[in-house]
Amino acid sequence: QVQLVESGGGLVQAGGSLTLSCAASRRTFMGNSMGWFRQAPGKEREFVAALSWSASTTYYADSVKDRFTISKDNAKNTVYLQMNSLKPEDTAVYYCAADRIISTRSNDYNYWGQGTQVTVPS
After folding, report:
1. CA–CA dist 117, 112 (Å, integer)
2. How far apart are the C-alpha atoms of 109 and 65, rounded to whole Å?
3. Segment 96-115, tens digit of pLDDT
4. What kind and span of H or E run contains 29?
5. What is the reported pLDDT for 54?
6. I want to staple 102 with a disulfide (CB 3.0 to 4.6 A). Which of 21, 26, 33, 96 is the partner?
7. CA-CA-CA-CA torsion for 98, 20, 12, 39, nearest 10 degrees?
């Protein structure tokens, strides 16, 4: 069964840090690249970060580069998004996604979680 469950969202002050987790079913995790996307109110879903299955390739949106880090733990079938120096503009629902090929495009991912809210007050 395809399953992705995000957790770790919450309210954090500007400049603070937060780590999101995405626990996947083994079937969803094995062999797939993982991505994080976010969607703010009234805006389209946008790419945040992606990690290839081998972990040899990572992509980041320019807006989060040097602040966010994507990683995974194969033993736990879990992918993480470490977010540092958070800004009000990082406020959004964050989604993890999985599919065979690493991509920055949401349309390339067929498996999605339900999302977790991150709020950074201004």
Report:
1. 15
2. 21
3. 999 999 999 999 999 999 99
4. helix 26-29
5. 95
6. 33
7. 10
Confidence of residue 2 (pLDDT cuts 50, 70, 90): low
How far is it, in rounded angstroms, from Cα 71 to Cα 30? Answer: 15
In single-letter form, the type of residue at position 119 comes to T
Dist CA 48 CA 40 (whole Å): 12
Distant-in-sequence, close-in-space partners of 98: CB < 8 Å, separation ≥ 6: 4, 24, 28, 29, 32, 33, 34, 35, 109, 110, 111
Which tokens hold the place of 48? 């945040």
Q: Which amino acid is at 41?
A: P
Nearest to 120 by CA among 102, 93, 95: 93
Position 92 pLDDT exceeds 70: yes
CB-based contacts of 85: which residues, under 8 Å, 6+ apart? 15, 17, 67
